[in-house]
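hey
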């Protein structure tokens, strides 16, 4: 078999996070990922979110524009993701414990 395998440990870990979060945006998912699992780049997280949408493991739930004072301007576009129809989360206990402890602070 040539090319990248369709199964990925990083994408599976993202599915675990989305299983407990129900819905989340890229930066939020990356922050949680790097707290619970070995660190990966944000670029890798966004790649696997896009790849998960293509494989139907992840769906785009909403795209919202948020006003604020950011270093790059006054508006940010957040894409919210949730589990897709082909998602197969395994219920990781580390993710569950982390989100039970820190979920209120992460949802800000």
């Amino acid at each position: 078999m040539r090319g990248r395998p369709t199964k990925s440990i990083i994408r599976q870990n993202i599915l675990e996070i989305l299983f407990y979060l129900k819905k989340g945006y890229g930066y939020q998912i990356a922050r949680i990922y790097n707290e619970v699992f070995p660190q990966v780049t944000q670029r890798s997280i966004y790649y696997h979110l896009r790849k998960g949408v293509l494989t139907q493991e992840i769906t785009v739930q909403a795209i919202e524009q948020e006003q604020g004072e950011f270093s790059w301007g006054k508006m940010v576009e957040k894409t919210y993701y949730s589990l897709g129809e082909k998602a197969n989360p395994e219920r990781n206990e580390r993710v569950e414990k982390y989100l039970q402890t820190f979920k209120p602070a992460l949802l800000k």
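The first strand starts at residue 24 and ends at 25. Strands lie at 24-25, 58-70, 73-83.
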